[in-house]
Design brief:
By secondary structure, this protein is an alpha/beta fold. The chain has a single domain, classed as TIM Barrel (Alpha-Beta Barrel), CATH 3.20.20. It contains ten helices and nine strands. The protein has a nine-stranded parallel beta sheet. Helix 5 crosses helix 7 and helix 6 runs parallel beside helix 8. The longest helix is centred in the C-terminal third of the chain and has 15 residues. The radius of gyration is 18 Å and the shape is globular.
Length: 294
């Protein structure tokens, strides 16, 4: 028995992908519909740069097939400008902006920290403590939104929905057992990020799911993954989804994670030379997690 495995891409609207991944003549408004039939999950990136609107989330929901999942990237206003401090109202605006309109297609929420933000236990613990974990708590938080989303908020309740969170760190000070223990207490996943050696690669498992971001192993955002590299990532993911950890993993804590099957979400972000969608399809096939017809 193993957890659910979803391999996908980070974003979908890239001009260089046209006529190389997207068929010639495909209307831009049809690109998500096309991509969501090739991979089983996609990261929404626009939410990192600005608050999106409910009608956008509703459209994305409608354009994708049943069973599809989105990851949603948390606002850089929270992570890079507020640097996680006094973030309750900003979090309220984020969750009121339409995220919950994805309903059952809402997968993990990703929080990417800036490279210069060092590990501050009090700051990180306070932020993790206010993250909503279900629809009820998310709606309660969203009610606190300010004028920035007045007249453009979504405060409906899409039924029962668990909200998972993952955090991607980029400062070496996070490679500490204390941080790993904190994430385990909060049940937040530590993103396993391959960044061509630029930022830390930490493979400790801290939640009941694993979140992987593959930005390129040779050149950040640009290099494709060789067959050997994809085989290596397939072996890692297969171990994680069966509740194991491969020997030689780069761990920050000597304490092993609890055993048990885990869901795995993996996103390719090596988009600049159109490697991401093709690498995602190749890795998914290795794991028997491909989309029919892809």
């Amino acid at each position: 028995m193993h957890g659910e495995t979803r391999i996908g891409i980070s974003g979908w609207r890239y001009a260089p992908w046209r006529r190389k991944f997207y068929p010639e003549g495909l209307a831009q408004r049809k690109e998500l519909e096309f991509a969501s039939r090739k991979v089983s999950t996609i990261e929404i990136n626009g939410s990192f740069y600005s608050l999106q609107r409910p009608e956008s989330y509703e459209a994305w929901h409608e354009q994708t097939p049943d069973g599809f999942l989105f990851a949603v990237k948390g606002s850089r206003y929270i992570t890079h400008m507020l640097r996680l401090e006094n973030a309750e109202i900003a979090l309220a605006n984020f969750f009121a902006s339409g995220v919950l309109a994805l309903g059952a297609k809402l997968g993990p929420v990703l929080w990417q920290l800036p490279p210069r933000l060092a590990y501050d236990p009090a700051r990180i613990d306070a932020f993790l403590s206010v993250l909503p974990r279900d629809v009820r708590s998310a709606l309660g938080l969203a009610q606190l939104h300010d004028e920035r989303v007045d007249g453009r908020s979504f405060l409906g309740a899409p039924g029962r929905l668990r909200i998972r969170h993952a955090i991607e760190v980029r400062h070496p000070s996070f490679a500490t057992p204390d941080f790993v223990a904190m994430l385990r207490r909060h049940e937040v996943a530590l993103v396993v990020a391959d960044t061509a050696g630029r930022w830390p690669l930490i493979e400790d498992i801290t939640a009941d799911f694993v979140y992987v971001r593959l930005h390129g192993d040779k050149e950040l955002y640009a290099s494709g993954y060789s067959d050997e590299a994809l085989d290596n990532w397939a072996a890692r993911i297969d171990a994680w989804r069966h509740g194991r950890q491969l020997a030689g993993a780069k761990l920050a804590s000597p304490r092993p994670a609890r055993r048990g099957a885990r869901d795995v979400f993996c996103y390719f972000d090596n988009d600049t030379k159109v490697h991401a969608p093709h690498d995602a399809i190749r890795l998914a096939r290795r794991l028997g997690a491909g989309v029919s017809g892809a």
